[in-house]
Specification:
The complex is a heterotrimer of chains A (about 325), B (about 290) and C (about 280).
Chain A lengths: L16 H39 L2 H4 L3 E2 L9 E2 L2 H32 L2 H15 L3 H26 L20 H25 L3 H9 L4 H30 L2 H6 L18 H8 L6 H33 L8
Antiparallel strand pairs in A: 1-2
Helix pairs in contact in A: 1-11, 3-4, 3-6, 3-8, 3-10, 4-6, 5-6, 6-8, 7-8, 8-11, 10-11
Chain B lengths: L1 H46 L4 H5 L13 H32 L3 H14 L3 H17 L3 H25 L3 H9 L4 H12 L1 H16 L3 H4 L19 H9 L4 H36 L1
Chain C lengths: L27 E10 L2 E11 L4 E5 L6 H8 L9 E9 L2 E2 L7 H7 E4 L11 H5 L1 H6 L5 H14 L3 H4 L12 H14 L4 E5 L7 H14 L4 E5 L3 H7 L2 E6 L7 E7 H6 L4 H11 L1
Parallel strand pairs in C: 3-8, 3-9, 6-7, 7-8
Antiparallel strand pairs in C: 1-2, 1-4, 4-5, 9-10
Helix pairs in contact in C: 5-7, 7-8
Classes of the chains: A mainly alpha (about 325), B mainly alpha (about 290), C alpha/beta (about 280).
């Protein structure tokens, strides 16, 4: 008996000429997506090559950013102050936003009756879509004066008196500083973390919850013993995505962070830059090839850092949410 | 004795349950309050500056009151249209490829590329298009701006259409295949019509996102204070106008920035609100 | 339903092969068929002849590969990513698995009805019936379509029930009606063979009986293969039966096949007897 393989494993044999044309078109479109990503990386690497070869790792570790040659200062590009600004504001945003977001997500998905929960969830999802420049203008005209006149003096007169922690609040309160940048970012990533956490919590199997309730557990006990342990990786993933967005966010931060000092001090009340606000503010001034190259390298650094956090977040959230929904199940 | 201890333990458990409830209610109200305050401020400050001139006139020279942002509204619409023309075919086709044809290594790579592109900081997209087009090819222009917006839209469209295509029950594809239908007809005449409302909402969502993008336009379309219908010249856009006005020293421009923000948010909210509403209704009906 | 004591109560005494419309055509010969999902083998070594003008039932325990087997007969098996088959399936003397043969053309000759009724949700009853014609054949006149719709719906005994709802959504019908609509859709393109993969598993007993009656009237024009997990259905509705099984040592394979009466009343293989008596309890 002769056996012949009739359709090789994995190969989508298409006999119909229409199928061949169609799948070719679809493949071509998909290739465009791939090409964009490749072009992204290639172009950013090529254009930052001059800066990379001239400054090497000192680009990341030096805090001298002198785009214009003067008698005292040679041209130098060290991005550490920008990296510092990004790290400080993003972490601050994460610390402020995560508890709020998770608490609200728990309320919306576990405690609230549907007539409160549903509209609240709806509003939150709409807020994810609000453009960052809107947060920026609010930050500039409302938050900055509030921070300058009320919040920062208050922090200085309370926390500022404590040794060590007080170092965070040294200097004149100006409103446009790292602290305000962090607060605006926190508000911006709040809806992101909230809506993703809510989704993750909704994935907790109902049987697990009902099983505990049936044993006489209170809601809080169900939450801490059944819901949160199950949803933890997903919630961490949601926060990571928030962090990735905070790192990449430009407009809102640019408008409130001051963009004036490249000094690195422990005080949150110092005006500073983030990587993205430095790009937005300085690229038009990039008049020499090396200056331009340094700006592009900033973009490259941002791309890499944001992608790393994004991938980490996907891995964590996928474990919970991504399992379902196969198309050929 | 034993019963008393049991009652006390129960009371303690109830108390901690109540405390935790108060705590999450507090957190949730705080979150909602913050966000409502922001929207409230935008309404309060924006509404007072909305006049007919605001929608029909172009800006007055520095320091002069009056005028509007008509050129920015036109610019935003023009660039969105061009970006849509570029992004919609690519995004939808990629999603169809991933769901209907993709099972191999190429499809996995494309899927990964979409995930990465979707979360790229938008300013990096601006830097990329600046280096690709603005510097040597087009200069600051509407085309460059549209390209940047299209790059932002493609992964959003692809992801949402992919999700929606996955909802199509496989039995439907099999029914059509079993009638001796080639795959391309199955996709175009059976699968896509079934989820057309969902696909349109995905496209709307991406347009709403693109309408609010500022950072990439700063590096590509630059902005313009005059009417310009030529996509090869620098072009105004609402978010750019907001930014430029907000950081300017003039009170009148600050008011216009608030008003533009209100209009922009209204547009984005209407678009994405309609999307959420339609998707929900559609999901409900298809079940 | 009355309790059934023996299958003899169910099976008509003689099983006359219905008059075939074109002699010995429309017969299927399966030789050495094996089917895989990626590396996993689902069935192997299937040799089975399916004659024209009769209803052939494929029975067997869950997971024995009944559905896989029937899906190999019109090359629907391979639409699942990574799935493929080896061996041969011959329809009227030509191997449908010959390299270069087009599965799309084959499926027009061998229609299929699935477990869950799957009318196209965006199409009306009318459009569902002519979906195959519209999608795959040159356009015809409205009168031609009207004729096809009425003829197809009449042959599935649905015409009287839906003739006033032809332009309602196909999904608005009841489950049993939807399944008969799907059969009408399959026969509207005049296939030679009709494959039914547990067509009644989602239906109530009344709707099930209607489908069985319908199959009896359709067997004159179509070679019919039906997969079922319902022994009584196989006994009532089929002329020939094939029993498939999988055990620890073998993936799904054919235990025996023959006239339904013999398989149920005097099976040659003890495993067939165990399964049938076990299922009847």
């Amino acid at each position: 008996m002769t056996l012949k393989t009739t359709a090789a494993p994995g190969s989508q044999k298409v006999g119909d000429p229409g199928d061949r044309v169609f799948s070719f078109i679809l493949r071509a479109a998909s290739s465009i997506v791939l090409l964009i990503l490749i072009a992204f990386i290639v172009l950013l690497v090529i254009d930052s090559r001059e800066s990379i070869s001239r400054f090497g790792l000192s680009f990341l570790s030096s805090s001298k950013w002198n785009p214009v040659e003067t008698e005292i200062n040679k041209i130098a590009f060290g991005a550490l102050p920008f990296i510092f600004g990004t790290v400080v504001t993003s972490l601050l945003a994460l610390i402020l936003a995560t508890p709020l977001a998770i608490g609200s997500a728990i309320f919306v998905s576990e405690y609230s009756p549907p007539w409160i929960g549903k509209p609240v969830a709806f509003i939150i999802e709409l807020l994810v879509a609000i453009p960052s420049v809107a947060y920026g203008i609010w930050g500039l005209f409302v938050l900055v004066p509030l921070m300058r006149d009320v919040v920062e003096p208050f922090l200085q007169s309370t926390l500022g008196k404590i040794p060590v922690i007080g170092l965070l609040f040294v200097g004149p309160p100006m409103g446009q500083d790292l602290l305000t940048g962090g607060v605006v970012l926190a508000i911006m990533i709040l809806p992101t973390i909230l809506s993703l956490s809510r989704e993750v919590i909704a994935q907790v199997p109902r049987l697990q919850k009902e099983g505990m309730l049936a044993l006489g557990a209170t809601r809080w006990e169900v939450l801490t013993k059944a819901v949160l342990p199950y949803a933890r990786p997903g919630i961490i993933g949601a926060s990571m995505l928030g962090l990735a967005r905070a790192i990449g966010e430009t407009m809102a931060v640019t408008m409130v962070i001051g963009n004036s000092s490249t000094k690195i001090t422990p005080s949150l009340l110092t005006p500073g830059y983030t990587i993205s606000s430095a790009i937005a503010n300085q690229f038009t001034e990039a008049d020499s090839p090396i200056y331009f190259s340094a700006i592009v390298e900033l973009g490259l650094v941002l791309l890499i850092v944001a992608s790393v956090f994004n991938i980490l977040s996907r891995i964590l959230v996928m474990r919970l949410v991504g399992k379902g929904g196969g198309s050929h199940a | 004795m034993h019963e008393q201890a049991e009652t006390r333990r129960f009371a303690r458990r109830r108390a901690s349950n109540l405390m935790s409830l108060l705590f999450v209610v507090l957190l949730a109200s705080l979150s909602v309050a913050i966000l409502l305050v922001i929207v409230g401020h935008i309404f309060a400050n924006g509404l007072s500056s909305l006049t007919l001139d605001f929608f029909t006139k172009i800006p007055k020279p520095y320091g002069e009151d009056g005028g509007g942002i008509a050129q920015a509204i036109v610019g935003t619409i023009e660039m969105l249209l061009l970006a849509g023309l570029m992004a919609i075919p690519v995004g939808v086709a990629t999603a169809i490829y991933l769901v209907e044809f993709g099972s191999g290594r190429f499809a996995k790579t494309v899927g990964f590329a979409i995930e990465l592109l979707a979360e790229l900081p938008s300013i990096v997209v601006g830097v990329f298009v600046w280096a690709l087009l603005v510097r040597n090819v087009t200069g600051y222009s509407g085309i460059a701006g549209s390209t940047a917006l299209a790059i932002i839209m493609i992964p959003i469209i692809a992801r949402s259409v992919e999700e929606i295509l996955k909802l199509v029950p496989n039995g439907l594809r099999e029914a059509a295949l079993a009638l001796g239908t080639p795959r391309w007809k199955v996709v175009l005449f059976v699968v896509v019509p079934t989820v057309l409302p969902g696909i349109l909402t995905g496209i709307m969502l991406s347009l709403a996102r693109a309408a609010g993008e500022t950072a990439p336009l700063l590096l590509t379309s630059l902005g313009n204070n005059f009417f310009n219908f030529n996509l090869q010249k620098p072009m105004a856009a609402m978010p750019l106008q907001i930014y430029n006005y907000a950081v300017s020293p003039y009170d009148d421009w600050h008011r216009k920035a608030w008003a533009s923000t209100l209009v922009l948010i209204a547009i984005v909210a209407i678009m994405s609100g309609a999307v959420k509403f339609l998707t929900r209704r559609w999901k409900h009906e298809s079940n | 339903m009355n309790p059934i004591r023996s299958f003899a109560d169910l099976i008509p005494d003689a099983v006359p092969a219905a008059e075939s419309r074109q002699g010995a055509e429309r017969s299927i010969a399966i030789r050495g068929l094996a089917a895989y999902y990626g590396k996993h083998k689902a069935i192997e070594g299937i040799d089975l002849d399916i004659g024209p003008g009769v209803i052939t039932a494929i029975i067997g325990p869950s997971g024995c590969g009944k559905s896989t087997l029937i899906r190999c007969i019109n090359r629907m098996h391979e639409v699942i990513a990574g799935a493929y088959a080896t061996g041969s399936v011959t329809l009227d003397g030509t191997d449908i698995y010959t390299p270069g043969s087009d599965p799309v053309q084959i499926r027009r000759r061998i229609g299929m009805v699935f477990q869950k009724p799957n009318p196209f949700p965006t199409r009306t009853v009318y459009e569902n019936v002519i979906a195959g014609l519209r999608l795959n054949l040159p356009r015809k006149s409205k009168a031609d379509y009207d004729e096809v719709v009425e003829r197809s719906l009449r042959s599935v005994a649905l015409w009287d029930e839906v003739k006033d709802k032809l332009h309602d959504a196909g999904t608005a019908l009841s489950g049993g009606q939807q399944q008969r609509l799907c059969i009408a859709r399959a026969i509207a393109i005049k296939p030679e063979v009709l494959l039914l993969d547990e067509p009644c598993s989602a239906l109530d007993p009344t709707a099930t009986l209607k489908i069985e009656d319908l199959l009896f009237s359709l067997k004159i024009d179509y070679t019919i293969v039906i997969v079922t997990h319902n022994m009584q259905q196989a006994a009532r509705a089929s002329d020939r039966t094939a029993f498939l099984m999988a055990d620890e040592n073998h993936v799904g394979h054919l235990v025996e096949a023959g006239p339904t009466r013999e398989i149920f009343l005097k099976p040659k293989d003890s495993r067939t007897e165990d399964y049938i008596s076990g299922r009847l309890g």
